[in-house]
Amino acid sequence: MITQIKGGVCAAKGFKAGGIHCGIRKNRTKRDLALIVSEVPAAAAGVYTKNLVKGAPILVTQKNIANGKARAIVCNSGNANTCNANGIEIAEAMCRVTGDALGIAPDDVVVASTGVIGQPLSIDPIAEHIGELAASVTSDGSAYAAEAIMTTDTKKKEVAYSFTAGGKECRIGGIAKGSGMIHPNMATMLVFVTTDCAISAEMLQKALSEDVKTSFNMVSVDGDTSTNDTVCVLANGMAGNLEIADEGADFDAFAEALHAVTVELCKMIAGDGEGATKLLTCELSGAPNAETAQTVAKSVICSSLTKAAMFGADANWGRILCAIGYSGVFVDVNKVDVSFRSKAGEILVCKGGAGVDFSEETAKTILTESEIDIVVALNDGDASATAWGCDLTYDYVKINGDYRT
Amino acid sequence: MITQIKGGVCAAKGFKAGGIHCGIRKNRTKRDLALIVSEVPAAAAGVYTKNLVKGAPILVTQKNIANGKARAIVCNSGNANTCNANGIEIAEAMCRVTGDALGIAPDDVVVASTGVIGQPLSIDPIAEHIGELAASVTSDGSAYAAEAIMTTDTKKKEVAYSFTAGGKECRIGGIAKGSGMIHPNMATMLVFVTTDCAISAEMLQKALSEDVKTSFNMVSVDGDTSTNDTVCVLANGMAGNLEIADEGADFDAFAEALHAVTVELCKMIAGDGEGATKLLTCELSGAPNAETAQTVAKSVICSSLTKAAMFGADANWGRILCAIGYSGVFVDVNKVDVSFRSKAGEILVCKGGAGVDFSEETAKTILTESEIDIVVALNDGDASATAWGCDLTYDYVKINGDYRT
Fold first, then answer.
1. Which residues pair with B70 in a beta bridge?
2. Which of A116, A314, A403 is closest, CB to CB, to B402?
3. Handedness of CA B372, B311, A307, B397 (dihedral sign)
4. pLDDT value of position A399
5. pTM for the complete prediction?
6. Paired residues of A374 in beta bridges
7. Using a CB-CB distance cutoff of 8 angstroms, which residues of chain A are in contact with residue B121?
8. Pick the catalytic residue: A61, A98, A188, A194?
9. Which residues does chain B have within 8 Å of residue A224's beta carbon, measured at their own beta carbons?
10. ipTM of this complex prediction, to 2 decimal places
11. Is B87 a residue whose pLDDT tops 50?
12. Domains parsed from chain A with CATH numbers
């Protein structure tokens, strides 16, 4: 049984976190450096952007956790440390000063950066303040870390669950940042998950790699795949369960809890998409196979025209059929049914690929809510998928018309 | 030698055109039915959307020009006649009433529709007014036809050129509509081209199919591939040149003139993208092959973040590197140079994948112009490509938040 609990990345035993303003950002009220630390060595797993342009911190993190373990995560916002000539050098320096401050090896540190691309990142404010940050981490500091990794996000994103593995109560929790440049491909945004469940690095990586296919890879805000997407999980084993080292009931319990965390973070990211006023969920069923289900659901969520129609509470289902038609996988469009659903009700707008009579007034009421489900039935098999996105608004343009200057 | 001339689809000998308000649209000042007629039978070629959801008119047009010939094009705006149970029946009725009005066979008529998807189209206003329209076509009526096919377009799109083939002066001209739902795949929007050049249907189709790869397929406004995209060319041979029936100098001259028409229409469509304030051109060079060049150039033009930055005149070149990195084809990002150019000047912002010092003030001045070139050099081969797009603005959201109701 999975139960939602408080505490974010500090919910699991033995994890502390914190976040401070070190001076990367000009705004002194905005925290810009986060730290998450495990009392004991932890198994580590990560998935990363497939963008060919990769942030320097990703290359350093991949090297550092190649041995399947880590003890700390350091992350700054305000600068992505990407497309800079000295990027690797700076990312390595971040690990070194963090290791020094915590008394651990530099290669036990996971490093991440987020913010503007192509502007040199100075190590100075980080080196100067990392000691202060290391001294300030606490077991209720998750919210400070969650705040320190935000860029254009308007809301902190943290969640935690408890679950049972090997007869022991375990905890798993995560924080995330992500609002624009969100269209993950095998990884996403910045997401840090901690658990006290004992699990081998190999099984942790297996669980994570499988999970992202139906969680972060099914989110899109704007179709732009970031250069710095990283999801990293640390498992320190302090729950005392027998280490999960292969598949079976315990692995399934862990995977289920991990999925509860990642799906909740997905919804938070999509709902807080840049400029968004609405969380859109495409619930797709009746597909001949999982790949078709996922491709079509994501195509609907990514359509700029559908997103703008949802902003305007306009039941323009033709745009949904259109997005189904150009997804790139084969669909028999003459079998497709489409409904809109929210807490105000549900309305069928298209059956067998053609429009049905419906009340525009009722549709408007349903689409005026802040969480909209676009329910698509392909009626051509048993596979299903869920994808998350948001509406396209004036504010998306405003935020991105002048982000850098 | 190619010379730009006036006359749009009526520039070529023996073509007449017109456009009227027949009543499909409520706004009585907006023309909504267009007709283009050739005095004599013409060779016909077409390319169409790859969207699995295809407008009924496309299916009827494909059947009608399967024999390689046609004499007239009828097109309404205000309703796409797509995803309607009786779509085919209505599209066939449009050909029948047009054929009757002109005294030609119904299967010599090309039919197209554009506008909202999924609302039944009544034949009544068309049947009632087609006689009036057929009587009103003239050899200077191209602008009326261009206006009658507009939807959210703010500008009429027409262009014509004269060229020489087989020692004879030939003319070729076209009209287009397209502003949103623009991301063609092997075809695009609605484009009608006429020429008096004598060319076999087979060679006409070959020229057109080849041309769209570097013209309409390289345009994107919003990443949404329409259900009704159609490009159709009629060639009536009235220039008196020896019919072009195989490759050679004459075919090349024709292909060059066709490309002049299509590229000009591409720029008009991109520059008139929904809500657009700027025409963006990505000039990409130094690619290892044409496919890489085209894929990368289009990825840059499609990036919502790049489009919003261009709206804000923000030289955020990191977003361009990002879009190059997620295009799906391999690029050595450490070799990439990026400049911005407009009539106010040119500025290098990225060299070898990393930022260079540049004047933000100069960049702002360059990016404040209404036509911006994003100049990308991959420095990894000899292939090049050009793609056209537009900025992402508040008005795109406004137009699409409430298009239907």
1. B42
2. A314
3. negative
4. 81
5. 0.79
6. A282, A340
7. none
8. A188
9. 303-305, 319, 322-323, 326
10. 0.75
11. yes
12. 3-271 (3.60.70.12), 279-401 (3.10.20.340)
